[in-house]
Amino acid sequence: MVGVAELAPQRYTGEATILDLLSQVATEAIADAGFKRADVDGLIVHPIGGLPGFVPATVAEHLGLQPTFAETVDLGGATGAGMIWRAAAAIQAGMCTSCLCLTGTRRRGSGGKRRQSSAERPKPRSIAPARDRSPQAEFDAPYGMVGANVGYAMIATRYTHEYGLEDTQRAKVAVDQRRNANANPAAIFYDQPLTIEDVLSSEVICEPLHMLEIVMPAAGAAALLVTAAERVPDARQKPAWLLGAGESVTHSSFAQAPGLDATGVGIAARAAFDQAGIKPADVGLASLYDCYTIMVLLTLEEAGFCGRGEAGAFVESHDLTWAGDFPLNTHGGQMSFGQAGLAGGMSHVTEAVRQIQGRGGERQVPGLELAYAHGNGGIIAEQAGLVFGADR
Amino acid sequence: MSTRLIPPTTELTAPYWEAAARGELVIQSCRGCDFRPFPPRAHCPACGASELTWQPVSGKGSVYTYTVARRAPHPVFAEQCPMVIAVVELEEGPRLMTNVIGCDPAEVSVGMGVQVDFDPIDDSDLVLPVFRPC
User: Fold this and answer.
1) In A66-165, where does DSSP find H-type helix?
2) pTM across the whole model
3) How many domains does chain B have?
4) CB contact at 8 A, A12 and A105
5) Which end of chain B is more exposed for a tag (fewer CB within 10 A), N or C?
6) Inter-chain contact B67–A126, Cβ cutoff 8 Å?
7) A202/chain B closest Cα distance in angstroms
8) Predicted interface score ipTM higher than 0.95
9) What average pLDDT does range A166-192 have in this prediction?
10) DSSP for A5-50?
């Protein structure tokens, strides 16, 4: 990784189109690396609402690129991490030399005018039959299994049943991450402190999850430029080296998910650590997908940072801030940094890369050599793990 | 009778909904390897065989996990909240997304035994399999 760019997540991005946002971070990432636009011959993007197809070509033309490798990655929150190893693999396969990985989403907002609330808008009740629709519309949605809150609440229920977990232990994750965000001027909650009491007194949305354990939608974009080892000396920045990667897709509907001791999280993480030839304990920064507090706890033990059922006690007994004994989501995590669509998942990668490069600013983890970034999509359906190492 | 999102049925899944309408829960069974896939499909995901037959199941199972949705996941469900959304594991193996009805949401627990019941969907001919404590 030689170039990083990320827009500070915002609630709304006004009139900017998604192509404009991607163009901005693409330009900044190329400049960050000290590369020229003509150096970029690979492009990875993700599906974009409103573009039914031809996404890489549309984005490439907009950016003025004619890549020799172009594709989309569609792994939900694991998309960003999934892009990175694909870029490296494409480079290794000789398909390109420098590959841009782009993620982002726009949110237009009300422009000052009050919009009709979702409760006021008439909602169609019938989900139109369509031959190629996901079975979830037929077998999950009629029960209220819509969106992600319900699924992660059910994960929390099951986890608590199997291993025991206190509300305060989940809240600790949100609070320590907020302390990290309080040291990150780009974070959406930069200037707002958070306490355990705040989390536990926020509204329970789906038992046992409170509002402040749930990521808030935002808008923004993030880009990473991946290049071949031989181009690294041309880069303006010290690189972060990709040392290992793993991926796993286990299901789509949460009803068909494997048990909590056999998730794809563990499959992807173990593969990444094995490929890198390191152990979880060797890592100085864990940058773990945090759509919900429970996801961080589950990932900690599935990825092997602590033993089975120990995640609650683990977060209680460690300082998870950038200055602590187990730095976790030093950018604030998506819960406190902001979830700009699929750029939210990418934020775990950009943070790991910046920290490895020694560009963590006020929140820099001292002497960082190895970092782990994890992406998670759907209801623990899609997983991608990456191990990064510092330049020596 | 409940107000819900109305499921988009297909030709292949019609037997599931026809059975529910007469108060029966049926699941596909593979003639090749006896696997019971859910949701329904044309080919067995375990062995690839295309001979899948619809078989009645006991309708008995246990709560694998659940949540009490206090805020409606979709405006359609506003009047039913708090509602119990659950994954139930049937005695025969398959896991289904469902609702647990007929009890105080606070009484639901993981592992609780449940029995299928059928809830007609408002403004629709469809009847939805749900579960109640047994």
Assistant:
1) 79-92, 135-139, 149-163
2) 0.96
3) 1
4) no
5) N
6) no
7) 13
8) yes
9) 98
10) EEPPPBS--TT--HHHHHHHHHHHHHHHHT--GGG--EEEE---TT
Please give the structure tokens belonging to residue B106: 């606070």
Residue type at B11?
E
Find chain B residues with C-beta within 8 A of A150's C-beta.
67, 69, 73, 85
**Tokens 């029995």 belong to residue:** B115
CA atoms within 13 A on the CB side of B40: 20
Position B10 pLDDT exceeds 80: yes
State chain A's mean pLDDT as an integer. Answer: 95
Question: What are residue A313's DSSP bridge partners?
Answer: none
**What is the CATH number for B33?**
2.40.50.840
From chain A, pick out residues whose CB is under 8 angstroms from the CB of B39: 135, 138-139, 253
Q: Sign of the C-alpha dihedral, residues A253, A258, A263, A268?
A: negative
CA-to-CA distance for A45 and A200, rounded, in angstroms?
Answer: 38
Question: Dihedrals φ, ψ of B87, to 5°?
Answer: -105, 125
For domain A3-108+216-390, the CATH architecture is: 3-Layer(aba) Sandwich (3.40)
Tens of pLDDT along A247-305?
999 999 999 999 999 999 999 999 999 999 999 999 999 999 999 999 999 999 999 99
What letter represents residue A309's amino acid?
G
Q: Which amino acid is at A219?
A: A
